[in-house]
Specification:
heterodimer; A: about 450 residues; alpha/beta; four-stranded parallel β-sheet; B: mainly alpha; 5 strands; about 5% strand
């Protein structure tokens, strides 16, 4: 199969297709690709919706995922708004909104695109990169094709090399993220990086950034984070009010929605959760094991792990992944009202609290996970590692040791962007959940004794 | 690109230093100037020196801004942002910032103590003659509410002539105030602190960019701090006294209506005002009295507590801290993060978004802790607006 897509030949093909009926091999291949990709996405979306306990107000979030992945539509936006693609959690959305563009997070989880990308990048590269390159090569997803600019933070090796490959196809800007954060100069360096990013963004829209627009976008993002923090307090409730898989889908939808619309919808969801709390309408039973997911990003439609956890009897209560809670957890803390103060606060928010393992010293991630375990009353941790995602794999050992001291079981599951390993994963996760149930049973009778 | 930034820093910082240096040089030869003794004789009002100081500091600030604007404009990267970064007060605000809270209480206490220490005598009479608290209730005010051990500390040679009971009261009350209040004095009671906070707030209101110091620059301040402490305690033995160069002296006596000469301190005060305009609580970073009190922080009752697990190391506290205490966010072992530099202003707790990660305690009782709910309460207004909008939309839909 000549899957490696060549722009030049495609243009020629397009030219030819005006005269001939569109039956070239590439056309058919693309059609097959689209069919398969939408089928897989639709399947996972259906499983997501069928997972009982989805709040009514979740529907708009599902619809966004459906629009993007099944109907292959562009992001819902005013007609003249440019979209700026971002990767990772280090690109400040605030800056993009401040120049009047719409940020879209392009990290991908598509299995079909992964299969295409497999031929474009080295075998050991992480599946996320393969999926992104796959979509880029097939040119069927409007969110990838309409991007006026892609901002790629230089985090892990794969992202670094991806910049080079993307540059051949689309305008790409590489944002240098400091590799360490213990020194003050690291953060200050990032302030300078952001200052240099602004002119690039301004070129896209033609609008200049101003104090007002930046302050406004910080407020908007702040409001989304305020709603998110409210949502988090509902997530901490025992028994659970919402399933974790739905919460992850919600965070995935954030990537493809204008922030105002998203926070408005989340506000409605929060109201529904408040009603559920009042009516004692819970989605989990008392004894259901409370599981947390951490590790490599979990991106729609690759949501097999959260789905498996909740389908095999666990309840996903929290996640510490970059497509999940992390992207909106830490608020921007403005301490200085000047323009430079706003920029500093942005740089601070996107580097210092970020628990991405690409930073040299990342012990704070362990503390964060421990705190989440305490907050959400987590009974077991699923450590998700994508094949080839080395940075997350490096941190597994320390986490296992630390959680061993706490007596919280951890399981490391390695997966790839395909459905072949699903049965194997099911067995392992099921066993893990059974183990927690047994442990719980063994501990339970002791409680009255202590009380007595 | 980093080079340009370094160049910028290399030019901005020296200009400020040069201006300050010129002022210090001026102050050295101030005795030869005809207005050195200005204000101490019968001519004019007591407030005149203060007004002169204010005028000169405003001129200094404008000069600094003008210089920085020139430098930034010629910078290839930053020149683009000169309008946003350097203009006096771009319109629009960050609306989500919380307006009322613990900081309001702090401002109230500061204002009360400011007026109490300066005009207290007029309202309450000369009350506590014997008690000395180490605060700037300047003894140059000939009559005041409470005595200040600040004066005795800067005139340690005068201890020789004092009776044992006086020395006992001096040390006793000093120790007591270190234990009970500690550097709470700096953050909440000191009139000099209020003055510096006012200049800082003026800058915030005008949205002018300040100087953000990093750990290396704070390290540079340390020798200055020790030198100031040495001068503070030692000048009395070599014939002078710290009051001659203390910038605080131009504030409270003059406002209370006592005629004091400008000395050198008036010129030092100009440096302090300009410094505190660009760097919050500039003088507190080198204040010898505050540092002396801070050295006793281990026995003080006011403490900053930290829950090391809840901390996400977001560094917001460090950014907000006017004293540049980095350990507050890097600490992962101890639950007590009070240091000699901490002035108990509570900014770190006010800006902390994590539930119970930071707290201020008095004698083991936490009376103010950080919480995400209060941190984000500024957004409640937006939420109410959104609720109204949704109700309206629903109504319109049902009408159709």
């Amino acid at each position: 199969m000549s899957l490696i897509y060549n722009k030049k030949t495609n243009q020629e093909n397009n030219h030819e297709s005006n005269t001939k009926p569109p039956t070239t091999m590439e056309e058919r291949q693309r059609q097959r690709f689209v069919d398969k990709a939408t089928k897989v996405s639709a399947k996972y979306l259906r499983r997501l919706e069928e997972l009982n306990g989805a709040p009514e107000t979740m529907q708009p979030f599902f619809k966004v995922l459906k629009d993007i992945y099944v109907d292959m539509k562009n992001v819902e936006k005013p007609a003249d708004t440019k979209i700026v693609g971002t990767y990772c959690v280090m690109v400040p959305d605030e800056l993009i909104y401040a120049v009047g563009a719409q940020p879209v997070k392009l990290c991908s989880g598509s299995y079909t695109a992964f299969a295409i990308g497999d031929d474009l990048v080295p075998r050991d590269a992480c599946p996320l990169i393969k999926a992104v390159m796959g979509f880029q090569a097939m040119e069927v997803m409007p969110i990838y094709d309409d991007c006026a600019l892609m901002v790629v933070p230089i985090t892990c090796d794969c992202k670094k090399k991806m910049v080079g490959m993307l540059k051949e196809r689309v305008p790409t800007y590489s944002l240098h993220v400091p590799t360490a954060k213990s020194d003050d100069t690291d953060m200050e360096q990032y302030v300078q990086e952001l200052y240099q990013l602004i002119p690039e963004l301004e070129k896209v829209t033609g609008q200049t950034i101003s104090y007002q627009s930046l302050a406004k976008s910080i407020d908007q993002m702040g409001f989304a984070q305020y709603q998110m923090s409210k949502f988090n307090t509902y997530k901490k409730h025992v028994p659970a009010l919402i399933k974790g898989t739905h919460a992850m889908a919600l965070m995935n939808a954030f990537s493809y929605m204008p922030v105002e619309q998203w926070s408005q919808q989340l506000h409605l969801l929060n109201q529904e959760l408040a009603r559920r709390k009042k009516d004692k309408h819970y989605v989990s039973k008392d004894k259901q094991p409370r599981i947390m997911v951490t590790g490599s990003p979990i991106i729609f439609p690759n949501i097999k792990i959260p789905l498996l956890i909740e389908e095999t009897g666990g309840i996903l209560v929290g996640d510490e992944t970059c497509m999940g809670e992390r992207s909106l957890y830490d608020p921007t803390v403005v301490v200085d009202q000047s323009f430079d103060g706003l920029m500093r606060s942005l740089a601070n928010r996107y580097t210092r609290p970020c628990t991405c393992p690409t930073f040299v010293d990342n012990s704070q991630r362990i503390y964060r996970i421990k705190q989440m375990i305490a907050d959400h009353q987590v009974q077991g941790v699923v450590y998700h590692v994508l094949r080839g995602c080395l940075v997350y794999d490096f941190e597994y050992q320390t986490l296992e040791d630390e959680l061993g001291k706490l007596g919280v079981p951890v399981i490391r599951v390695e997966s790839d962007y395909n459905e072949e390993d699903i049965e194997q994963l099911r067995i392992r996760i099921e066993a893990f959940i059974e183990l927690i149930k047994l442990k719980d049973l063994a501990l339970r009778p002791k409680k009255p004794e202590i009380a007595g | 690109m980093k080079k340009i930034y370094l160049k910028l820093r290399k030019t901005v910082t020296p200009t400020v230093i040069v201006i300050c240096g010129v002022l210090i040089l001026l102050s050295l030869f101030a005795a030869n100037l005809f207005f050195f003794e200005f204000g101490s004789d019968d001519s004019g009002y007591a407030i005149t020196p203060v007004l002169i100081i204010l005028l000169l500091s405003i001129i200094g600030i404008v000069l600094c801004l003008w210089l920085r604007r020139r430098i930034v404009r010629n910078d290839p990267v930053m020149g683009r942002f000169v309008g946003e970064r350097m203009s006096l007060g771009p319109v629009g605000t960050n609306k989500s910032q919380r307006k009322f809270g613990f900081m309001t209480i702090r401002w109230l206490i500061m204002l009360i103590s400011f007026f109490g220490l300066i005009y207290g005598v007029k309202w309450l009479g000369q009350g506590f003659g014997n008690i000395e608290i180490p605060i700037f209730a300047c003894p140059i005010n000939q009559d005041q509410l409470i005595d200040s051990s600040c004066y005795t500390l800067s005139h340690l040679n005068s201890l020789v002539g004092m009776s044992w009971s006086e020395i006992g009261i001096f040390f006793g009350s000093l120790l007591l105030s270190i234990v009970v209040l500690g550097r709470f004095i700096c953050g909440f009671l000191c009139p000099m602190g209020l003055l510096q906070d006012l200049t800082h707030e003026t800058r915030q209101g005008l949205k002018i960019e300040g100087l953000s110091l990093n750990e290396k620059l704070y390290q540079r301040l340390k020798p200055i701090k020790w030198m100031m402490l040495l001068l503070f305690l030692g000048l009395g033995f070599v014939g002078g006294n710290f009051c001659n160069i203390c910038p605080a002296i131009t504030v409270s006596p003059a406002l209370a209506g006592f005629k004091v000469s400008l000395f050198l301190s008036g010129f030092f005060m100009i440096v302090v005002i300009i410094g505190s305009f660009f760097k919050r609580r500039f003088f507190c970073n080198i204040c010898p009295l505050g540092y002396l009190i801070g050295l006793g922080h281990r026995i003080s009752l006011f403490r900053i507590k930290k829950d090391c697990q809840a901390c996400t190391e977001c560094g917001a506290c460090y950014e907000a801290c006017p004293m540049g205490i980095k350990t507050i966010y890097t600490e992962r072992e101890k639950s007590d993060v009070t240091t000699a530099d901490c002035i108990m202003c509570g900014e770190c707790i006010d800006k902390c978004p994590e539930n119970k990660a930071l707290a201020m305690s008095f004698g083991g009782v936490k009376f103010y802790s950080a919480s995400r709910k209060t941190f984000m309460s500024g957004h409640k207004k937006t939420e109410r607006k959104l609720k109204r909008f949704i109700r309206k939309r629903d109504k319109n839909e049902s009408d159709l």
